[in-house]
Amino acid sequence: MTEGGNLSLTNSRRNRLLEERRNWRKNHPPGFIAKPVAAPDGTLELGKWECCVPGPPNTPWEGGLYKLYILFGDSYPYTPPSKIWSVVVCYAEMNTLFVMLRFFYRFCPPILHPNVYTSGSVCISLLQENGWRSSMQLKDILVSIQTLLAEPNINSPANAEAYKLYNENRAAYDERIRALAKTYAAANNTINE
């Protein structure tokens, strides 16, 4: 497959995403998957990547493989990845995560997590304007997501049910997450790198 002739790709964005692809293919964290999405004509859409984040080892999330799409806006890498289209179709897969807006990820369907709103959106500080550096790479984003799964920011709860369960009955919370991980492992057992 070759890179598509997408005119909306600025030179710096295009060059950075090509560099990200080369770097990823040479060296990426074990168990993670990231690749540009193929357009219907077989070209690669460098501005949209399909990724998978493994559940962190030795946590209730272990064994799950969590699928996501990252959309890179025209000003990337100078601003964090962003959602640049006004409408996103939420895939029917139960294991899809989206970077919806500049500062938000969206799980479809929403997952039980203290930092994930019931709508599925979650704010990641790494991707906020004041936390973003243009030197950050795709692997930084994906590892940050993996870390957030295991280490919720309890000072910034987004989901009252998950927050309460996490703080008041950690064993029950962990059991629900283990069940979720089994579901995500079964749903993603055919994903290719």
TrEMBL record:
A GO molecular function term, named singly, is: transferase activity
From what superkingdom does this record's organism come? Eukaryota
Q: Which GO terms describe its biological process?
A: protein modification by small protein conjugation
> What sequence ranges are listed for the domain UBC core?
12-186
Q: Which residues form the active site?
A: 123 (glycyl thioester intermediate)
User: Which InterPro entries does this chain map to?
Assistant: Ub_conjugating_enzyme, UBC, UBQ-conjugating_AS, UBQ-conjugating_enzyme/RWD
Xref: Pfam families: UQ_con
UniProt keywords, alphabetically: ATP-binding, Nucleotide-binding, Transferase, Ubl conjugation pathway
Q: What is stated as this protein's family in its record?
A: Belongs to the ubiquitin-conjugating enzyme family.
* Name of the protein this chain belongs to: SUMO-conjugating enzyme UBC9
